[in-house]
Amino acid sequence: MAGTILLYWSVAAAWRPAVLSAAGAALVAHDGWSSLLAWSALVAWLAVLCGPRWQRAALVKNIGLAGLLLGFGLYQYAKAWHGMAAYLGFAFVSLKAWHMLAEHGEGASSQGRMPSSLAYLLFPATIAVGPVQRFDAFRLELMRARWASQDASRALERMLYGYCKVVLLANYLLARNLNALQGFTGDPWCETYLGLVAYGLDLYWQFSGYCDIAIGFAALLGIRVPENFRFPFAARSLPDFWRRWHITVSEWCRDFVFRPVFARSHQYLLASLCGMMVLGLWHELSPRYLLWGAFHGLGLGIAHLWSKHAPFAAKLRDYKAWRITCWWLTLQFVIVSFAFTSTDSLADAFGQIRILAGL
User: Fold this and answer.
1) Which residues contact 4 (CB under 8 A, 6 or more apart)?
2) Is 88 left (phi over 0), alpha (psi -120 to 50) or beta?
3) What would the mean pLDDT of 43-68 be, rounded to a whole number?
């Protein structure tokens, strides 16, 4: 990290994309030859499709998106059903690749976008866990990157904040202390509920902590990247939760799945189900993640129907007691949904849900 930062600020601005690309490629190579091969295939696919100018640009774009979807589907299948290890950042770079194909298409070579495009895909700060930034925003940040001591101080503070989340809250407080409370109650309901709460806190502290480190690292390179978490467990509704949790990936699903489906069908519930099930399958190609997505999609649809069609819904929001109730109900919905992702099988997930339901 320190070597990348020093070299990045030592070279001329025209060479900075190459420094970022080389640093990212080194991380991929360190992950293993199979990871390097998969990344190379993806980059080559994008270079062939996005580099030249094509007479039938729309057809080429559709071929590119179909090939990307097929390749990522095979990758997810190999992980889920054949025990293949995940490649470093491959799920996140696939979302970036979709951005580039869908929004920028061909002509990158003639427009001089190839160096910045490669740096965008291999950006070392966000390569592992995101956040997923749009290419236009990244390119703009890259062009106007300037060293500022005050910004560097804030960046180091943000990285320290992330390390505290991961090391102190998740790996020490939660793993060594809070998890030790399980088993003391002897009550199956409490044990199940506390286990899901611990799982959710660990997921949030680990992932948001690593994102804080990534955001700080990017800031040390003079590049601002979007936030990925904004106190999600304070959300007062399920749509509000998804505006706070895994924000950049949620926005990707909104822009590339939910909105196209809703524009064609005018069915909010259908669009919500499609968007969230795609998000679930992006995490893992398995029935439990598919049902997790359907569970959240159904919840989003119900929340939309309530807010739009209940005649007294808007008036209730004026009361503090109702806002607290909405927060509590949203939190319980999210905690129950962790049953699908914290277990190894659907049978175990439904077993936990039955315990929580008192059945």
Assistant:
1) 19, 20, 23, 124, 221
2) beta
3) 88
pLDDT at 178 over 80: no
Of 139, 59, 95, 94, residue with least CA distance to 254: 95
Predicted TM-score (pTM) above 0.90: yes
Catalytic residue flag (residue 283)? yes
DSSP state of 310: -
Contacts for 198 with CB less than 8 Å, ≥ 6 apart: 174, 178, 179, 182
Helices (H) and strands (E) in the chain, counts: 17, 0
For 181-190, how does the pLDDT look when each residue is reduced to its tens digit (9 = 90+)? Answer: 666 667 888 8
The 10 Å Cβ neighbour count of residue 192 is 18
CB atoms within 10 A of CB 350: 16
Both tokens assigned to 3: 């070597």
| From 82, 246, 283, 309, active-site residue | 283
Q: Return the percentage of the chain with pLDDT > 90, whole number.
A: 71
Overall average pLDDT of the 133-137 stretch: 92
Q: How far is CA 161 from CA 154, 211, 215, 224, 279, in A?
A: 10, 10, 11, 17, 28
Type of residue numbered 30: H
Q: Which of 33, 22, 219 is nearest to 125 (CA)?
A: 219
Q: At what angle do helices 16-31 and 114-121 cross, to 10 degrees?
A: 40
For residue 301, give the nearest of 229, 239, 219, 254 by alpha carbon.
239
Dist. CA 174–CA 178, nearest whole Å:
5
